[in-house]
Amino acid sequence: MSGNTFGTIFKVTTFGESHGAAMGCVIDGCPAGLELSAADIEKELIRRRPGKAYGSRDEEDEPEILSGVYEGKTLGSPIAIIVRNSNQKSDDYDELKDIYRPGHADFTWQAKYGFRDHRGGGRSSGRETLCRVAAGAVAKKILSLSGIKITAWTSSVAGIQMPSLGEAGFDFEEIERNTLRVPEKNNAQKAMARIEELRSEGDSAGGIISCLVTGAAAGLGEPVFDKLDARLASAVLSIGACKGIEFGAGFAAAGLKGSENNDMLSDNGKITANNCGGILGGISSGQDIFFKAAFKPTPSISKPQKALDSEGRIREIEIKGRHDVCIVPRAVSVVEAMTALVLADFILLARAARL
Predict the structure, then answer these.
(1) Is-contact 283 350, C-beta < 8 A?
(2) How far, in Å, CA of 133 to CA of 14, rounded?
(3) Which of helix, strand or coil describes residue 283?
């Protein structure tokens, strides 16, 4: 199976299925001498965990570093990390063995491979994202050496819009204080009430995640086909529930005049506007990098719905088991991880760009 490896120099391969023995990743290309511990990885995995507030599968997600680290520092050799699955309830999926769940990869996976692991979606499960977060924790350590910081948050959820970056009420400190990871307390309470209402109806919600990168120097990116925004888009869109992405002014730029949208240099050599989202010609401009990503509602809902089975018949199903009403808050850490993987790779590539 291809498609499980990401990166050029800082290369990550993920493995494991939702209800298998373990999930994990192998990181190749990480420079030697980087301080790294299991605690660094666990800190990020905790942010991805749902906790009891979501009513979904609650794993401890304790990472084990099997190789590539000695006495707290990376060796330059492949780093293998595993997280053992311990809270599977595969029986929840017995009734769905021959049914293709609406909105899931069940049908397309069967069409491609002729065989699938129906337990929780197998490899296509959202649980695969813990592998990305584990690898992203290592990438974040590399980025910290260059003063680069990545902060993502829920900017819209269940139809409730949060204050935008720079607007009144926006508070970075609030993001990690509430379970929805929104930047404003009152709206967090409104959104949670709406999500609980949807839960009682057996339904689900989607939302939008915003991501800000500060401290990235100008010059990161590899034209023509490996542009920074193209790689970021590929990375973020590879997250299962992500359905769209925009940088800077995004789709709104289509309604602007060139004189309104252009990013101009000031007398001190700094770019004055940031409609480009910190990326020009596929290369970082030295400004803050900013993008938004749209995430669909969780397709596993208990509300009765029509589904196709393996015999081509239409069936009515109610999906049982433990599922998030809204995956957006958990996806915040995944967006950060994929952004970190891209940037760490480009930092290493930049070292070979010129003498």
Answers:
(1) no
(2) 11
(3) strand
Token pair recorded at residue 98: 């021959």
Helix (H, G, I), strand (E, B) or coil at 250: helix
Q: Which helix (H) or strand (E) holds 334?
A: helix 328-350
CATH hierarchy code of domain 5-350: 3.60.150.10
In angstroms, the CA 128 to CA 48 distance is: 11
Residue 94, pLDDT score: 64
Q: Percent of the chain beyond pLDDT 90? A: 68
| Distance (Å, whole) CA 3 – CA 79 | 19
**Tokens standing for residue 253:** 């730029």
Query: What separation, in Å, do the N-terminal and C-terminal C-alpha atoms of the chain show?
Result: 38
Q: In the prediction, which pLDDT does 91 show? A: 59
- CA atoms of 208 and 296, how far apart (whole Å): 9
Residue 242 has pLDDT above 50, yes or no: yes
Query: What ranges do the domains of the chain cover?
Result: 5-350
Other beta carbons within 10 angstroms of residue 195's beta carbon come to: 26
